[in-house]
Design a protein that fits this description.
369 residues; alpha+beta; Heat Shock Protein 90; 2 domains; 3-stranded antiparallel beta sheet; 60% helix
């Protein structure tokens, strides 16, 4: 069915658009000498009749779409249709004139109408051609919308695939480091190795539970961070000192899962873990003006460490995930100073829509504030 006919509101707008054509017919019939009493209803009836006849190009245009049809095929289909449709329209108008003659008792109107038939036929063909052009234009617009929608769907699919790849890079990297630490502890401190295995299992279970979701609450992400730090605390002991400054009203905000994990892992592995006396990790979360939230990490590091040319795999992973999820609304900034390293994430503060499962919580004894 024609798209205009399936929507009453669209049909009403379409019929109103034919009122200027009714006015044109009214002027044409009056100038031909037709009785002014019957001209307005006759012109309106003729315009409405042609309005429905003017829907036929929709089906003909589908038979000869412009991208796949030659100009000769288009003309071969629409030229006879224009002639046939206009002739049918004029025949119906002639019947309406005969009815109007009897209803208004105005003889001779049919003869006047026949004098205008040639001009009306030309006008009808031109209106049919205009209808064909408008239908082709509407079809081109619809094709453009479908192509745009398809492009957006492909973009979403590509984005989801990229996010899965970026997220998949997190777990193996951390898991290998943890397994190496456990292997080292099995000979020097077996109880600590067993405890680290338990904490690692709890952390992986929690990360798998939230890893399939596009977003998690910020308090869930912080729970995962604490679970990871509890594992590292077994390995580093008092060398790892952690200070948290988390605002009270940010726990329900949503962020991509395991977003902070690469930043925290970098801070411990490449910063505090390289210091014989250990160091301090400061984690700050606070709302920002303009509906944003700031996540900051500051860690101690060796002043004599060799400077890296790039930002590292973990930091680049975070930067790509932010760009993929938020575009230009979010960003990662890092500042490398002689004795410390700062990483700062700013992203839109969006409330989580549903309750999620709690993450791994570290006991107070495992995190030194």
């Amino acid at each position: 069915m024609h798209p205009v006919l399936v929507n009453p509101r669209r049909l009403g707008i379409y019929l109103l658009a034919w009122l200027p054509f009714a006015g044109l017919l009214d002027g044409t019939l009056r100038s031909a000498g037709m009785d002014h009493a019957i001209v307005p209803p006759l012109a309106l009836a003729m315009a409405l009749f042609y309005a429905f006849l003017g829907l036929t190009p929709y089906y003909l245009c589908r038979l000869a779409p412009l991208p796949h049809s030659s100009i000769w095929r288009v003309l071969a289909i629409h030229a006879p249709a224009a002639s046939l449709t206009t002739s049918l329209w004029l025949a119906g108008a002639a019947m309406a004139v005969s009815v109007a003659e009897q209803a208004f008792d105005r003889s001779g109107q049919a003869a006047v109408y026949r004098q205008t038939a040639g001009g009306l036929f030309t006008l009808g063909v031109l209106v049919f051609a205009l209808s064909v052009a408008l239908h082709y234009l509407a079809m081109a617009f619809e094709r453009s919308r479908r192509a745009e929608r398809r492009a957006l769907e492909l973009q979403v699919v590509a984005r989801d695939a990229e996010l899965k790849v970026l997220r998949a890079q997190i777990d193996p990297h951390f898991l290998f480091n943890s397994l190496h630490s456990i292997a080292a502890l099995t000979t020097t401190d077996p109880p600590a190795a067993r405890r680290m295995c338990v904490l690692l299992g709890d952390f992986l279970r929690a990360s798998l539970r939230v890893g399939q979701r596009a977003f998690i609450r910020l308090d869930e992400e912080l729970a995962l961070v604490r679970g990871y730090l509890a594992i590292e605390q077994v390995r580093l002991g008092a060398r790892l000192r952690i200070v948290e400054h988390v605002a009270d009203n940010v726990g329900e905000l949503e962020i991509p899962p395991l977003l902070l994990h690469p930043l925290v892992e970098n801070a411990v592995t490449h910063g505090i873990g390289q210091l014989l006396e250990g160091g301090r990790l400061d984690l700050r979360v606070a709302p920002e003006p303009g509906g944003r939230v700031r996540l900051s990490l500051t860690n101690s590091c060796d002043p004599d460490r060799p400077r890296r040319a790039g930002t590292g795999v973990g930091l680049e992973n975070v930067r790509k995930r932010l760009a993929t999820v938020y575009g230009r609304e979010a960003g990662l900034a890092v500042r490398e100073q002689p004795d410390r390293f700062d990483a700062e994430v700013i992203l839109p503060a969006r409330a989580h829509a549903a309750e999620g499962a709690p993450g791994v919580q570290a006991s107070p004894s495992e995190i030194q504030a």
